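Reviewer comment 2.1 asked that we show a complete input and output for one of the modelled complexes. We chose the nicotinamide-adenine-dinucleotide case, as it is the one discussed in the main text.
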Amino acid sequence: MGCYLVTGIAGFIGSAVAGALLEQGHEVVGLDNLTTGRLEKVPAGALFVRGDCQDGGVYESALPRRAYDAVLHIAGQSSGEISFDDPVYDLRTNAESTLRLLRFSLSVGCGRFLYASSMSVYGNPETPVVSEDAPARPLSFYGVGKLASEHYLRLYGQYGIRSTALRLFNVYGEGQNMENMRQGMVSIYLAMMVGEGRILVKGSPERFRDFVHIADVVDAFLRCLDHPESEGREINIGGSGRVRVGDLVDRLCALSSLPVEVEYRGGTPGDIFGIAADRSLASACLGYAPSVSLEQGLARMYAWHTSCQDAGTAPPAGTP
Ligand SMILES: NC(=O)c1ccc[n+]([C@@H]2O[C@H](COP(=O)([O-])OP(=O)(O)OC[C@H]3O[C@@H](n4cnc5c(N)ncnc54)[C@H](O)[C@@H]3O)[C@@H](O)[C@H]2O)c1
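Response of the prediction step:
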């Protein structure tokens, strides 16, 4: 059995990935500064270290120096919109953290590194469906930090670190933070619909996205660990394929038994108009194919969120 370091273990994606590793019988050490994460989300059985990936002291004393089989770097400020509030914070918490974790990996002799990158590296693509060799011209500070991190991964290849950057598209599903109203298109609209009976969409209904369920994202991370063909690559992880934002909103409204008021107004800085993943490389390198349809995924997330509301529990504490 292996031993893995998972950053962002108290967050949506990190907690789900760590939970899956533990279920397979591996040891997991988790690092998180609990900015957007919650302690209750850290899966039972993980060794939790509270600390910041950008803090050099964490690597000197707090993190156990184990023979890790891989580092899964999933922690990060995850909102393009928020990156405009404080670009320096975004740079430090995302790109600097990646650099420090790569140095740590090297220092403990860990040669495998997985990174939660983002479709944001592309900016507005020239074609609606992007493959990994499309030009990377991010439109947000967040996207710039993700792209910089990918380049750090590439540079550390020369020291023997075999890395994979998963360019995640719009991730959604049970366990998502339903209180962060500036990150996660599905979670924001669903929280508004259930909480207020209305959805305010900042931007056009004609925009389009590719929505990938958390179960498929976990599957993609796990596949990387036993598919060496993924090493040294950036790989798109999409799910639904191209879906209009207006269609997503209609699908959400159809789940509610109550009337929902929908308003389209304004926009957000750095927003991409439309993007969907070419999944050919993920299929070839990882044997990856999404298993949860958008219809199934939204129904599961709606049931989870409403049951948390009924039980009066904070949704972020729910298990996927
Ligand atoms: N959710 C998506 O749609 C999506 C899409 C593409 C990429 N990503 C990336 O996936 C990763 C996880 O996103 P998420 O949706 O789970 O977000 P999240 O906010 O639920 O989880 C992020 C976790 O990282 C922790 N964290 C943040 N900065 C940290 C730091 N400097 N040191 C230690 N811990 C830190 C937070 O406390 C939180 O627990 C992020 O890097 C994000 O950029 C997410």
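Residues 7-8, 10-14, 31-37, 52-54, 74-78, 93, 97, 116, 118, 168, 170-171, 177, 184 surround nicotinamide-adenine-dinucleotide (CB under 6 Å). We note this here for comparison with the apo prediction described in Section 3.2.
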